[in-house]
Design goal:
The chain has about 280 residues and is α+β, with helices and mostly antiparallel strands. The protein has 2 domains: about 130 residues, Roll (Diaminopimelate Epimerase, Chain A, domain 1); about 120 residues, Diaminopimelate Epimerase, Chain A, domain 1 (Roll), CATH 3.10.310.10. About 20% of the residues lie in helices and about 45% in strands. The protein is built from 5 helices and 17 strands. The chain has a 17-stranded mixed beta sheet that branches. Strand 5 and strand 6 form a beta hairpin. The two termini are about 30 Å apart. About 40% of the residues are buried.
Length: about 280
């Protein structure tokens, strides 16, 4: 009996400070954008597939000569996101390995161009995020039975920031969901960050991510939001080390209105997905 060969597709699994992502080289695959939501939902489902916080397609950007390549980024629930800081560092590292770009390059996101510098020797990547916008401090928001002060900034995607003397003890899943779906941020919703200022150079951050709908081990744009907010409040300086809930460290630098994010990015493994097992078909 002759067994029909499986339909497989190469993929790359990467992580940045505990945020994990599946990457697909879309240059030859040419999967249409219309199919990417379904692929993200199926591939990112933990225990039943590869499992990840998000799915990223890398492809050429022929209509934008200033870009070395572009990405399509999807959260685990299939929603498309404008930007992801930790994924951008992973993308930059992988793009160098796959021949998309040199170590210093620019790539396109829905939030705008992102400049990246890869240090392959140390395994670190520094990216310049899109300029922060919509800064709003000291918002008193009503929750069930209480009121709390919340700050807001968009660092490529929307982020609410809740300052607390001991964020490690908070119920981030409950409070994060309440913030993420609060009327103040409707209809798109927001990411929710819980920050403890350790000193003028260090903060601790926990993030409930929109699209993942749970706490993640880290969030690059959330780390940037925490640094922007605490600096605007006079609590931290322009350079901050952010300790994520996964224990990893991210460096944030605020320079002349720009925000730089730096940290390690790692290729964990590569392999071939069995598309039939995931009920996916090639274009």
């Amino acid at each position: 009996m002759t067994r029909t060969p499986r339909t497989t597709l190469p993929f790359y699994k990467m992580q940045g400070c505990g945020n994990d992502f599946v990457f697909i080289d879309n240059r030859s695959l040419k999967l249409p954008v219309s199919a990417m939501e379904e692929w993200a939902q199926k591939i990112c489902k933990r225990s039943f597939a590869v499992g990840a916080d998000g799915l990223v397609f890398l492809e050429e950007a022929p209509d934008s000569p200033e870009l070395d390549y572009r990405w399509h980024f999807y959260n685990a629930d299939g929603s498309r996101a404008e930007m992801c800081g930790n994924a951008s560092r992973c993308a930059a590292l992988l793009a160098c390995d796959l021949g998309f770009a040199d170590p210093q390059h620019v790539f396109g996101t829905d939030a705008g161009p992102v400049r990246a510098r890869v240090d392959a020797v140390n395994g670190t990547v520094k990216v310049e995020l899109t300029p922060p916008k919509e800064l709003s401090l000291n918002n008193m928001l009503q929750f069930e039975g209480f009121t709390h002060e919340v700050h807001f900034v968009n660092t490529g995607v929307p982020h609410a920031v809740w300052l607390d003397a001991d964020a490690a003890e908070l119920d981030v899943r409950k409070l994060g969901a309440a913030l993420r779906y609060h009327d103040r941020f409707a209809p798109a919703g927001t990411n929710a960050n819980f920050v403890t200022v350790l000193d003028s150079d260090n903060i601790m951050l926990r993030t409930y991510e929109r699209g993942v709908e749970d706490e993640t081990y880290a969030c690059g744009t959330g780390a940037a939001a925490g640094a922007v907010i605490t600096h605007a409040l006079g609590l931290t300086g322009p350079q901050v080390t952010v300790r994520s809930s996964g224990g990893e460290l991210l460096g944030i630098s605020l320079e002349d209105g720009s925000v730089f994010l730096e940290g390690k990015a790692l290729l964990i493994y590569s392999g071939d997905m069995n598309l039939e097992a995931l009920n996916l078909t090639l274009p």
